[in-house]
Amino acid sequence: MICGRGCMPINLLGSVVGTFLAVSLLSTFHILRKQQQQKQQQNNMKAAIATGTENIDQYIHVKEDWPKPTLATAVDGKTGKLVSKLPNERHLIVKVLACALAPGDCRLFSGKTDLVQLPKWGRPYVIGSDLCGIVEEISSDEPYFQVGDKIIARFDEPQPHGMCAEYACVKARFSEKCPASIPATQACTLPASAAAARLIAQTLVKPDSRVLLLGASGGLGTFVCQYAKLYGASYLAATTTQTELVQSLGVDRVIDYRTENWWELESEFQDQPFDLVVDLVNGQNWQKGGCSKTKVLKKGKGTTYTQLISGVQTEIDMTGLNMISFILGTMLGRPLYAKLNPWCPRLTFPQGLDLKPGDLKAILEDVAEKRIRVVLDPASPFGFDTASVRAAMMKQKSKHAHGKVVIEIAKEN
């Protein structure tokens, strides 16, 4: 039907209006959808997560859509959603620059320490023990840290996880401001390994003492070498295959464990036996040499034999009866045997993660003033993608890292 000259047919007009409305609605839908996607992207982050156990190639992934933590929330690993978190103590949200791995990451991933180390929500969880990053969010009453501070931070004992991501929520009491002069890829190695090494040296190394270090070239051992000398050891022997590396860290005598057993070197050390043995490897050294009648050690309780419970072991079976055996046999049995056996040295199990106020600050000063240097494994830093993170975990699990294993999350400005 025509309304007159120059007029548009009514049915054509209706079609135009309908098309206009449809286009407008579709455009509005796309705008809203884009805004929703942008909001989701703002609330998500890139993170390296463990979805299962033991098989690194199958269960370690870098995801782009892991929920970003805030001070009011934490990530529920089962649902992947943010859930309420009680503000029991001061927390910080950190934009992560670099993350360091440790044997504890592999022990947790093995699934054999779940009873002690697995996060309460289970799997999946973000891997990674220690970090260096930039503070992005603080609570209104935070007395020490400020947004923009470069810091180092450690995991919440005994659960080594949560740091290998673009953002992490850390406890303020396990954190410290980091000098700009220390690169993030070095600084992230300090909160656990350097702290444990310093504590061992502080409490056990006496001035002019002779020290034997078992396992000197790993992430922890490289720090123990230096802190033992810094705290007064006059002579330091060490078992390792990395002669040049450990000599540069102050070791006087390198014992290649592939060709020599330290407890059999009586002709070399019986006139000047060791005051302290630091065992970072495993319990076999205690069984073969620590509680034997070797003349390498001072008689009876004249020598202190200190053993890290886990050392560099990447798997400790704490399931079922194995956990009972571990507690009764290692934690209780060995100290009792050492106490009753007159040939045995004094046996201690140091609490390597016992941080006190000022410890991290002192360590950072040691590094900044070049009293202590950080040793990274030659393959570090690893990239922040699935293949690279898997390679980093493989290196850590191998127990043949020479220095710390580090993943670089973001470049420093």
UniProtKB/TrEMBL annotation:
Keyword line: Membrane, Transmembrane, Transmembrane helix
UniProt cross-references to Gene3D superfamilies, sorted A to Z: Medium-chain alcohol dehydrogenases, catalytic domain (3.90.180.10), NAD(P)-binding Rossmann-like Domain (3.40.50.720)
SUPFAM superfamilies membership: GroES-like, NAD(P)-binding Rossmann-fold domains
Sequence ranges assigned to domain Enoyl reductase (ER) in this UniProt record: 77-407
Pfam family for this entry, one: ADH_zinc_N_2
Transmembrane feature ranges: 12-32
GO terms of molecular function: oxidoreductase activity
Name listed for the protein in its UniProt record: Enoyl reductase (ER) domain-containing protein
